């Protein structure tokens, strides 16, 4: 196949001249900033080079490629994706919208750029630099020779199985060795992918040969290491899950039959592709650099094109990578163009993925968006779009309210779980809830507030095979930022398009309540199975049927079980609360007409005030026993005694 230019890029070049020049922009720099359409076209020369020189097309020409190539560029990812075109149709001033993905201020295709690199920033900001080096932000993109996992896991090389007792899955897929890879994306917590020496996303493996030698056959899929499958959801564990989750795959053949993506190796997934099927050809400029970014010190595009295909040249020319200082503070920070150390980019660039949604638009025309889903679970990077529809966001809370962006990871970043560095804890704002929770059982306290209010719900993958949302699992590696729990037997947080079956598909959404806020259902809150969930692990597996160390009667396999338990706590609390409110109301109405002495009235009013204060505390807590059943019931019992004693004195 002779390719000269991407069909998608060609379409972008046909855009009218008026949208390719931002003539109205006023800027102190010599060049006006690029708008969205210009950013799309900015890839043109890079695409032309890749289509002419990337070895995949030579493999295809020689009949050594299994899979059908799909070209994916910025036009597709930034303009066509997330229903932005549908949203733009209803906006008179917008010709196009990037709903799901956002580019940073600069891209790696800017030559020359003004980046100085994190080490230069660290010379004057050592405290922030020290924190940053310990964070996953600093390690989301690494060179092959920086992979400390080789020593940590005792590997021979990056093609060796990480967990040989349970899986043959390796950091790099079959036939792709370190010589042909510019960088590896990901950390030991969740997954690994790779960028090849042409900075193209690795959505393939090589059968019976090596990419670095141009031998063998390139095959779509089986390209990404996935830790949950390799280490935790082994075939044996899968069989346990399948005992109560009908259709859960217990073999690689089952895995291939259900989801449509498939794999050749248990623990390796076909990400951005399907095994021996769809072959996503996607340069890093089209997608990866949004979050797993890199910058080079090439003086010109000619130098850049000369280095493509040579991983070592690209690595030597890399001046910045990962979520480094300048990705947020701008190239050169305050040292260049008078930026003043501001924030040309922020957390939302990577952590606020939206989609335009017709159902959401019908429900509230002012908020016609929902979180981005790859399958039946909200994707990585949707934390901000979840928070956007919460009471916390309405009150002004943002990412940096709780998180220090320089040190988002409190524990060793090579761990399989994340403990975040928190600037604020829940109890700092929710004092009453903190008091009651501090008097709950040790099991609940071990998981912390996050254990129920921030369950690991999001996935980094498109696992149609294992996204059983009604059973709350099973490859959930991202904490939900919804917080609001809805006590309901049937209401579900995650739902398919109206009229569609509850099976993984496109178009799933996070449900909202009558106040247009998202909510968590009880199964995700209490009964989820998630092997990377720190709160669940600290809480002895909570109520997961697979991970829980509690008695089997407390292993929740469906939402009705959870509902029954919660209602059992809440009903007597609510009944006692209502009794107190009704009794105090009668006292308030009758105290002025009573013939009690002033001393007796004072005693009645004092008792009524104590009852009211306790009832107020229970109401403000809002959990009606779920934060601490015995303690809350004790508060209400005490309030009932005060109220009844006051009523008795008044002979009510």
Give an overview in words.
With 652 residues, the chain is of the alpha+beta class. The chain has 29 helices and 18 strands. Strands 3-4-5-8-9 form a five-stranded antiparallel sheet. A three-stranded mixed sheet has the order 1-7-6. The protein is elongated.
Summed up, the helix count is: 29
The main β sheet shows up as: 5 strands, antiparallel
The protein's oligomeric status is single chain
What is the 3D shape?
Answer: elongated
Helical coverage, percent range: 25-40%
Instruction: Output the strand order for the largest sheet.
Output: 3-4-5-8-9
Given the helix and strand composition, which structural class is it?
alpha+beta
The averaged pLDDT comes out at 91
Number of strands: 18
Radius of gyration: 28 Å
> Could you tell me how far the N terminus lies from the C terminus, measured between alpha carbons in angstroms?
92 Å
Unreliable residue runs: 1-6, 12-28
In percent terms, what proportion of residues is strand?
5-15%
Q: Which terms would index this structure?
A:
36% helix, Multihaem_cyt_sf, Cyt_c-like_dom, signal, 652 residues, Dissimilatory sulfite reductase SirA, 3-stranded mixed β-sheet, 29 helices
The gist of it:
Residues 99-249 form the Cytochrome c domain. By secondary structure, this protein is α+β, with helices and mostly antiparallel strands.
């Amino acid at each position: 196949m002779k390719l000269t230019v991407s069909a998608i890029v060609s379409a972008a070049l046909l855009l009218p001249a008026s949208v390719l020049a931002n003539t109205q922009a006023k800027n102190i720099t010599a060049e006006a900033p690029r708008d969205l359409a210009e950013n799309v076209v900015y890839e043109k020369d890079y695409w032309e080079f890749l289509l002419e020189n990337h070895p995949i097309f030579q493999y295809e020409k020689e009949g050594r490629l299994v899979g059908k190539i799909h070209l994916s560029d910025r036009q597709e990812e930034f303009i066509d994706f997330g229903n932005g075109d549908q949203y733009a149709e209803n906006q008179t001033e917008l010709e196009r919208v990037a709903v799901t993905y956002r580019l940073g201020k600069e891209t790696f295709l800017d030559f020359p750029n003004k980046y100085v690199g994190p080490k230069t920033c660290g010379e004057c900001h050592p405290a922030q630099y020290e924190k940053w080096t310990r964070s996953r932000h600093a390690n989301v993109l690494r060179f092959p020779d920086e992979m400390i996992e080789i020593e940590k896991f005792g590997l021979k090389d990056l093609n060796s199985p990480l967990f040989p007792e349970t899986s043959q899955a390796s950091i790099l897929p079959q036939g792709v060795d370190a010589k042909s890879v510019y960088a590896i994306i990901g950390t030991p917590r969740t997954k690994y992918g790779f960028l090849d020496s042409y900075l193209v996303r690795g959505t393939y493996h090589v059968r019976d040969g090596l990419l670095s030698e141009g031998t063998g056959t390139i095959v779509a899929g089986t390209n990404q290491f996935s830790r949950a499958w390799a280490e935790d959801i082994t075939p044996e564990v899968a069989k346990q899950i399948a005992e109560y989750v009908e259709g859960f795959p217990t073999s690689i053949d089952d895995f291939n039959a259900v989801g449509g993506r498939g794999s050749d190796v248990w623990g390796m997934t076909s990400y951005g592709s399907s095994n021996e099927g769809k072959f996503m050809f996607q340069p890093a400029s089209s997608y990866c650099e949004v979050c797993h970014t890199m910058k080079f010190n090439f003086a010109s595009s000619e130098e850049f094109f000369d280095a493509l295909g040579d991983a070592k040249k690209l690595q030597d020319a890399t001046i910045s990578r990962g979520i480094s200082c300048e990705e947020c503070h701008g190239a050169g920070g305050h040292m260049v163009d008078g930026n003043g150390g501001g924030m040309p980019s922020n957390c939302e660039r990577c952590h606020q993925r939206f989609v335009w949604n017709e159902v959401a638009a019908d429900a509230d025309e002012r908020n016609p968006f929902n979180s981005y889903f790859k399958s039946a679970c909200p994707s990585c990077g949707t934390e901000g779009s979840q928070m956007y529809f919460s009471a916390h966001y309405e009150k002004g809370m943002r990412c940096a309210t709780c998180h220090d962006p320089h040190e988002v990871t409190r524990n060793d970043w090579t761990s399989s779980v994340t403990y975040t560095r928190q600037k604020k804890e829940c109890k700092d704002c929710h004092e009453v809830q903190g008091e009651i929770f501090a008097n709950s059982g040790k099991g609940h306290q071990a998981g912390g507030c996050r254990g129920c209010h921030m369950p690991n719900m999001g996935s980094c993958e498109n696992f149609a095979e294992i996204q059983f949302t009604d059973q709350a699992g099973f490859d959930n590696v991202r904490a939900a930022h919804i917080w609001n729990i809805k006590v309901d037997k049937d209401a579900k947080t995650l739902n398919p398009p109206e009229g569609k079956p509850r099976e993984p598909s496109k178009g799933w959404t996070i449900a909202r309540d009558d106040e247009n806020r998202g909510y968590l259902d009880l199964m995700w809150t209490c009964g989820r199975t998630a092997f990377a969930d720190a709160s669940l692990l600290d809480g002895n597996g909570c109520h997961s049927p697979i991970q829980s160390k509690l008695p089997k009667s407390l292993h929740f396999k469906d939402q009705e079980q959870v509902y029954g338990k919660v209602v059992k706590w809440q009903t007597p609390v609510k009944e006692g609360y209502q009794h107190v409110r009704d009794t105090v109301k009668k006292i308030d109405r009758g105290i002025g007409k009573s013939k009690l002495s002033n001393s007796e009235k004072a005693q009645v009013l004092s008792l009524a005030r104590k009852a009211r204060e306790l009832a107020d505390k229970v109401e403000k807590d809002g959990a009606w026993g779920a934060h601490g059943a015995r303690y809350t019931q004790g508060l209400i019992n005490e309030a009932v005694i005060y109220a009844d004693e006051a009523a008795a004195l008044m002979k009510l």
